[in-house]
Design a protein that fits this description.
The chain is of the alpha/beta class. Helices cover 32% and strands 13% of the residues. It has a six-stranded parallel sheet with strand order 7-2-1-8-9-12. A two-stranded antiparallel sheet has the order 3-5.
Amino acid sequence: MKNYSTYNQLPIPSHFDSGMTARVWKVAYQEITKQAQEWVQMHQIKPASEDKVKIALVAVDVQNSFCLPEFELFVGGHSGTGAIEDTTRLCEFIYRNLSVITQIIATLDTHTAMQIFHPIFLIDEDGRNPPPMTLISSEDLQSDKWSFNPEIASSLGIDPDYGQKHVLHYAKQLKHRGKYDLTIWPYHVMQGSIGNALVASFEEALFFHTVARLSQVDFIVKGDHPLTESYSAIGPEVLQDVQGVTIAQKQKKLLQKVIEFDVIIIAGQAKSHCVAWTVDDLLDMILDHDESLTGKIYLLKDCASPVVVPGVVDFSEQADAAYQRFADSGIHIVKSTDPISQWPDIPEYADK
């Protein structure tokens, strides 16, 4: 008989207030340190270095720009409050499973103004920038409906002709690889901004976990290259420019985590974009390395929502199709509210 005693859930600490998930506030680090250390004594929580089964939680882009309604790219999903509910459940999941989550990996989407997916990058024949949520195809660029903005070329260290050729090449590559058309997003997660910061309730949960388990959060910064999108935490959408020169590379950190850890749990925003593409890239790497590793991955289906802008765009169908594809590959789709011990194929943890 399997012994799952180590997977027993903890209560949620009294400092956590689910009503604060949708707000910006300052984490009281010293107070949280004291509470976390008291929590360790109260529940006899061991350091992460002693874990017999190593579990990693990958939290994708749990940042203000995506998770708070007053920010630029709030992921409301169909409920209109999706990312708030997702983040609340994710925080509760961390607290309940604090004693078995070995490490947390948090990705940080990080942008500057002059990037290929922001309005300033393109203009129409009258010099106007495309409005946010405009989808731009290679046909739009070939017909000069939209063109590279030559006035930003010097700031990017390129010449206008190269900029125009690259954006057309870029759109063609997206189409060729079965990706979404080039999407013009509102300016979001701007480097150094409040929007770039982690949601305060989530940051507090990460800090509490760090102190309680003596396990440092591993941050992955992505999305800062001006000439390509980077939905995935593994690598950009397009890796080479129009001249065939490598402009970015995929990184193998998450694949290494899959190899080193027994369980990899993934959640975050948005289900249809950064989460889906991260898992998609990770799955490709796994299939090239060792197909059996797919069984280590668990997606929290109630801690991610698709991009839905009523009357404009709805990526729900694409998100659901991606998750079905992942499930078909052997990845587990689970709920954060279910005990980990009840998830399929969880490794036996002999508590000795």
